[in-house]
Amino acid sequence: MNAKPPASGPSRGETSPETAPRAASFDAFGLPPAVVETLTGLGVTEPFPIQAATLPDALAGRDVLGRARTGSGKTLAFGLALLVRTAGRRAEAKRPLALVLVPTRELAQQVSDDLMPYARALNVRLATVVGGLSINRQVAELRGGADVVVATPGRLTDLVSRRDCHLNQVRITVLDEADQMCDLGFLPQVSDILEQVPADGQRLLFSATLDRQVEELVRTYLNDPVHASVDPGAGSVSTMEHHVLVVHPADKYATATEIAARDGRVLMFLDTKAAVDQFTRHLRASGVRAGALHSGKSQPQRTHTLAQFAEGALAVLVATNVAARGIHIDALDLVVNVDPPADAKDYLHRGGRTARAGQSGTVVTLVTSAQRRDVNRMTSEAGVRPTVTPVRSGEAKLTALTGAKRPPNDTKADSGNAPFRGLGTRPGRPAKETRKSADARKAAEARAAARVRRGR
C-alpha cells in the first residue's frame, strides 16, 4: 500500500489570505530565468495569492493542500513547481515522472494549454491523456517518453491496465479539482492510481471545497501537508455580482432568450443534455449564435464549440455542468443559470467561469416562485447574498441587469412556427395543463355560468 504514514512532526499549519506571503514578482521564488522570461512575455508579472501561498513550499518538495476557487490561478501554483522540479530529468518510455489528475477532458486540455509555454521553456515533454480522443496516439506519446502527463482518471486507468503506462517512476502527483473528481465517482480510480505511485513522492492537492471524501484523500495520501486557503468565503468575490431573477414559469424561456440576445458573450447552464440541445436550436432559430456543450458530444465537437465561443464566433454557449470546470474564457462577464444548480458546490463552479483572475462578472439565476426556498438555501450555503428581482421578458429592468434585448428573429405567427413555450412541449401545442390550474379554470367557468343564469 502506498498510503503515506502519519507525520510525527508538528503540522505546518494553514496559510490564510492575511498571512499569505506577498511576493512582488515571480523572481522572488527563485524560478529559472527561462520561466521568468516566459511569464513576463505572457504578461504574468505578479503572483496571485494562491501562487504566493503555495509556490515556495511546492518548489521545496513539500506536500501541499490548497483551497482556492476556480479562476484563482492555481494551475500555475502547482504547474510551475511541477515543471521546475521535473526539468533536467528524462522519462523512460511509458514511465512519466510527474502526473496531474483532473476530473474532465476540458480541464485537462486547459491545464495542458496553460503549462505548455513553460514546459517548452524548460524542455519538458508534456502529454495529455483523456477519453474521447485516439488512445493509440496517446500510447505513442507515452512510448516516446512523456515527462509530465495530464490525465483524467478513467483514461489513465485504461492505459495502466493495458500496460501502456507505468506509474512507478512518478515523483510528483497533482490532484486538481479533487472535490469534483470525488463528485463524479472517480474516488476509487484516483485511490488506485495513488497506490501505484511511489509513497515517498510529492503530492499536491487543490480543491475549491474540502468535503469528507477529499479529507479522506488528504489523510491517506498526503504527508504533513502545508495548508493554504485563500478563499475563506466561498462565494465572496468582490468583483462578482449575484442576481436571482424571479420569473413566471411560462415566461422563463422567453426571458432567457432575451438575455441570450444581448451584446456580448454569455454562458448559460441547463440541467439535461436534451434541454441544452432543444434550447440551443431555439436560440439559433431566433437568430442568436449559440452552441451546445454536454457529455453527449464527441471530444472534437466539444473542442470545436469551445474554440468558437472563445474566438467570438458563438455569442452563447449553452451547457450542462460539464462546462462548469476547466473552461477559461477571457472577458466572459455573464453566467446564467437557466435551471438553478443542484447545490452550493455546483453554483460556485458554474459562477467561477466569470470574474476570473480579478476580472468583474455577473451570475444570474432564473427561478420560479416554487424554487425560491431551495435557491435561497443553496445561495446561503454558498456564502452568497444575491439581489432578488422579479422580472418579465421585455421589461427595462431585465435589460438593465443583464443587457437583454429582443432576439434578431422573433417567431412570427405567419411563419408557420409556434412560439417557444418552454422545454418539453410539442411545437404548435400549448403546454400540458396541471391539475391545479385545470381545477381553477373549471371553477372560474362555473362562476361565470352562474352569473349568466342569475342575470336571466
From TrEMBL:
MF term (GO), any: helicase activity
Keyword Transcription among record annotations: no
Gene3D superfamilies given in the database record: P-loop containing nucleotide triphosphate hydrolases
Disordered as annotated region, ranges: 1-24, 401-456
Database matches in SMART domains: DEXDc (SM00487), HELICc (SM00490)
Highest taxon in the source lineage: Bacteria
Keyword Secreted: no
Domain (Helicase ATP-binding): residue spans on this chain: 55-228
Keyword terms: ATP-binding, Helicase, Hydrolase, Nucleotide-binding
Membrane-spanning segments: none
Domain DEAD-box RNA helicase Q: 24-52
Helicase C-terminal domain location: 249-399
Motif Q motif per UniProt: ranges: 24-52
Bias-annotated ranges (Basic and acidic residues): 430-445
Family statement: Belongs to the DEAD box helicase family.
Protein name: DEAD/DEAH box helicase
